[in-house]
Amino acid sequence: MDLLRWFRRPPPIRELDELASFIDEHAAFLVQKGIYDYARARSGPYSKSLLAEPDFHVTINRSRWRAYPLGLAMVGEMAEGVLRPHAGGERRVILDPLTSLVLEVFDRYPVPQELGSGVWTGAREELALALDRIGTHPPKRVIDIPEQYVKRYFAMMPFDKELLTKDEPTTLAYLRLTLTDMRDKLVDRMDAADMAGKLRRG
Questions:
Q1: To 10 degrees, what angle do helices 117-133 and 92-106 make?
Q2: Closest by Cα among 132, 27, 125 to 70
């Protein structure tokens, strides 16, 4: 094991494809960690055996893929907030190319077999609409971004709705804390002014 890697700083984000990879990885982490943490907490001492069951594995994969577009929407809006001060008063000059970048991230993935093409196409349309709506309201604090998504996200947990506990507020707190940490990492790793210029130039 390369122990030194634990002490290395993550590489800077200088190119558009590196920003796309950051958004992809962090969107996936944001939703997947919440799903797995809830599944473990909900099943208690039976979590290991439950997570090992093939049927539940299919269920949890379905939850992950259904939630992934919500993660892209949240991380995408967070990234737009970091880049917005460098838009020169024209918010769309950053938002439109950033929206295209996030949708290109979505398009990296084939249709998940757990969902089917109809659901996946609908999820892309909803993601595009959510990103477009960023430009229709005043900028949000990063802790406020998850509020519009938490109810839908919590309903995607891998349990029947009647078995869900009343942990939506806890889930919201998790999303807020994690998304704030991701924003700090993005600010630390990216020259926002330089990246805004690259987005403008396509």
A1: 160
A2: 27
Cα Rg of the chain (Å, integer): 18
The pair of three-digit structure tokens given for residue 21, joined into one six-digit string: 């990879």
Residue ranges per structural domain of the chain: 14-200
Tell me, yes or no, if the pTM score tops 0.70.
Answer: yes
- Where does the pLDDT of residue 179 fall: very low under 50, low under 70, confident under 90, or very high at 90 and above? very high
Compute the average pLDDT of residues 127-133: 97
Q: In the 3-class helix/strand/coil scheme, how is the chain assigned residue by residue?
A: CCHHHHHCCCCCECCHHHHHHHHHHHHHHHHHHHHHHHHHHHHHHHHHHHHHCHHHHHHHHHHHHHHHHHHHHHHHHHHHHHHHHHCCCCCHHHHHHHHHHHHHHHCCCCCCCCCCHHHHHHHHHHHHHHHHHHHHCCCCCHHHHHHHCHHHHHHCCCCCHHHCCCCHHHHHHHHHHHHHHHHHHHHHHECHHHHHHHHHCC
